[in-house]
Specification:
- Helix content is about 65%, strand content about 0%.
- By secondary structure, it is an all-alpha fold.
- The chain has a single domain, classed as Up-down Bundle (Glycerol uptake facilitator protein).
- Belongs to the MIP/aquaporin (TC 1.A.8) family. TIP (TC 1.A.8.10) subfamily.
- This is Aquaporin TIP1-1.
- One of its GO terms (biological process) is water transport.
- Keywords: Membrane, Repeat, Transmembrane, Transmembrane helix, Transport.
Length: about 250
Amino acid sequence: MAISRIAIGDVQEVTRFKGIKLGISEFIATFIFIFAGKGSCMAFGKLTGNGPETPEGLIIACLGYGFGLVTAVSVGANISGGHVNPAVTLGVFLGGNITLFSGILYCISQVLGATAATYVLVFCTGEKASASALGDGVSPLSGVVFEMIMTFGLVYAVYATAVDPKKGNMATIAPISIALIVAANILAGGPFSGGSMNPAASFGAAMASGNWTNHWIYWAGPLLGGGLAGVIYEVLFIEQNRTILPSTDDY
């Protein structure tokens, strides 16, 4: 079972230079993702005066975050795996594919990268950041379920195209597949839960905007969905005879 392969690791993983490089990779990849995605939304608002809650704004968010994620995953894939999302990292950890210490390093780096990108955008554009928010009439419970289901699909796609040892040539299209499910989920969930699927992205937006209303939803939903996807895929579809990946010794 995947649970038996969960590893804690040791502090040397995050203090040695080889380990620190993984954190730097996640920081840069997440920065690229958020800067492109949120920057697209802010640019649309600047040019039109409309927000992402409009049909056009929803399409811009879909394209901006989708295109940004293709690049972010691609540039990080051969170094840290290109998680750019604490929910992805949790799913990979619960599947026994990364140690706890490395996972914590990844999550911290992702949160810092997302927060830095948001603050840089606010500074450079003079625009205000907007936090992840529920649509009108959407309850917190519904928001959690939306975020959980969307993130389940995201992490399931990550496992199928990037983590599974049997992926073969599928790995070459992993960034595209992952970005497409995120873009589709933004279209599906944007008007309802905000379509975050990424606690780091929501944290950066909440920090820069000062709006923490219902912020817990954007941790609870994605982490539940991502963790569940990782465990299900690992237990049902991956042979349990391989070592933990990635390892800091590989870089």
